[in-house]
Design goal:
Oligomer: single chain
Number of domains: 3
Number of helices: 14
CATH superfamily of the largest domain: Vaccinia Virus protein VP39
Number of strands: 25
CATH class of the largest domain: Alpha Beta
Largest sheet: 10 strands, mixed
Distance between the termini: 71 Å
CATH architecture of the largest domain: 3-Layer(aba) Sandwich
Radius of gyration: 30 Å
Shape: elongated
Strand order of the largest sheet: 16-6-7-5-2-17-18-1-20-19
Length: 501
């Protein structure tokens, strides 16, 4: 096969991670606080997919934790949304290298406002592209007007010469489109398709490349020695006797059709996708892989400051990049960690991380005061996880049960749509983010235990009233059903194992 004359040398990967910043870290907390701790110009590629100003509520399932969460990405106004994002984008610009790239993923609700803000922060001259990702098919009947079926991804540079590895859409050699088939209309005896390409040099002032070949004196693209070799190998041919020589450009040697700014070849996450977690704004792994391949090289540092379910950091890890993830949600950080453990060889271990072979999650809430301020669904998820339990699939209509503990050796049997078999051995968990859970809370949990035919259950709160404790005693004496009362402090201190027996 002929070598590509315009091929670029493959970048040589660096042998060690960044010396400027810790990588393979998931930070739990407000990204504005964490970004301020990072040094200037330490990141090669930034991708963010922040909550859209879309006035939508999400109630979604997370199959990996059997937890139903509520996502509210509303902002009181577009101004509030931009006011929230501006200081964060200021920090992101600061930590981006001059050779780095910044991708901002948004939808139609505020994209025009976002573009103005980014022009102000990164500079209009550093705007590179507006990428359109066609994410859904057209809506059916009943939709008024043109359906909004795309997201917008703004790409900005850091001010210097950017890393860019052009992506291509490979040709399907067995199913060529009409345009490609007409372009590559010649076929060798072995079946290989090719087109005849020009051998002229675009620069007419090249004396060393000016010579006579097959009866034609031209300024050629190659030296005479290379031209003769290509002719002998059948790469250079005369289409007809006496015609100007031309070069065979084979279709199977081409990288494909260059990807432009309209991406229609990456479908969204559907209900049957293996990678689907149930996160409402989860993006396909293929989308992040394209971005990361195009704008970084191996061992470059990739940052996602709104990690969500961690698609960007998973793609970065798979592509041998260094990465940093930030998210304000403890649940998201836990899901990200599990996703990395399940889908990569990377282990969550501080000693391995220090040796460059693991990752860590930092700043998860660890004080009573922080847990009091945590959103209710986050608090419930934390409490159930502390008990090594499995969070309930639903929160609204959960029938008074927030999670389940399975005895050692018993695994929950999955039913349809991720439901769990009720007849198996398990203990219910109820969680209340209250200073003192009272008698009414115990009454409600007792009803839930009777309904589920459970004789033992666990209750988590910050503390309990005397009436609640008396009711637990009565419940045991009269019905021989046990409620184990656990405090948040006991869970934090790890001083509760004896109560689980």
């Amino acid at each position: 096969m002929a070598k590509k004359a315009d091929a670029k040398p493959t970048p040589v990967p660096r042998s060690k991670p960044s010396s400027l910043v810790d990588t393979r870290v998931i930070y739990c907390g407000d990204n504005l606080d964490q970004l301020k701790k990072l040094p200037d110009a330490c990141v090669d590629l930034i991708y963010i997919d922040p909550p859209f100003n879309s006035n939508r509520n999400y109630e979604i399932f997370w199959p990996e934790t059997s937890e139903k969460r509520r996502f509210d990405d509303r902002h009181e106004s577009t101004k509030a949304y931009i006011d929230y994002m501006r200081p964060r984008c200021d920090e992101l610009r600061r930590v981006l290298k001059k050779t780095g790239s910044f991708y901002y993923h948004c939808d139609w609700h505020a994209s025009h406002h976002v573009r103005v803000m980014l022009d102000e922060i990164f500079g209009e001259n550093n705007f590179q592209s507006e990428i359109i990702w066609h994410r859904t098919l057209a809506k059916g009947l009943g939709f008024t007007g043109f359906p909004n079926n795309h997201d917008t991804i703004f790409l900005y540079g850091g001010g210097g010469e950017l890393t860019f590895n052009r992506p291509y859409d490979p040709y399907d050699l067995d199913n060529l489109d009409e345009k490609t088939a007409s372009k590559y209309s010649h076929r060798d005896p072995d079946g290989r398709l090719y087109q005849l390409d020009n051998l002229m040099n675009p620069n007419p002032n090249r004396p060393n490349l000016t010579y006579e070949f097959l009866g034609h004196t031209k300024v050629w693209r190659w030296t005479k020695e290379r031209m003769q070799e290509a002719y002998e190998n059948g790469i250079v041919v005369q289409p007809s006797p006496g015609a100007v020589p031309r070069m065979k450009r084979y279709l199977d040697e081409q990288e494909g059709r260059p990807i432009d700014t309209v991406w229609m070849d990456i479908p969204p996450i559907n209900s049957q996708a293996k990678e689907r977690l149930g996160y409402p704004t989860q993006k396909p792994l293929a989308l992040l892989e394209r971005i990361i391949k195009a704008s970084s090289n191996e061992n470059d540092v990739v940052l996602d400051a709104f990690c969500g379910c961690g698609t960007a950091i998973l793609a970065a890890q798979n592509l041998k990049r260094q990465w940093i993830g930030i998210d304000i949600s403890p649940t998201s950080c836990s899901v990200m960690a599990k996703r990395l453990r399940d889908n990569t060889t990377l282990r969550e271990d501080e000693d391995l991380w220090k040796a460059g072979r693991g990752f860590v999650v930092q700043n998860l809430p660890f004080t009573v005061d922080l847990l009091r301020k945590m959103p209710p669904f986050e608090f419930e998820n934390w409490a159930v996880k502390q008990l090594n339990g499995r969070a309930n699939k639903v929160q609204i209509g959960d029938k008074g049960i927030d999670g389940r503990i399975y005895p050692v050796g018993v695994s929950p049997r999955e039913m349809g749509a991720g439901e769990l078999a009720l007849e198996e051995s398990w203990y219910p968990i109820q969680v209340k983010q209250k200073d003192k859970a009272g008698r009414p809370d115990m009454d409600a949990f007792e009803t839930a235990m009777r309904r589920a035919a459970r004789t033992k259950g666990f209750f988590v709160s910050f503390d309990y009233s005397e009436e609640a404790e008396r009711e637990v005693t009565r419940f045991w004496k009269e019905e021989q059903r046990t409620i184990i009362l656990l405090t948040v402090k006991e869970l934090l201190d790890g001083n509760f194992a004896h109560k689980l027996v």
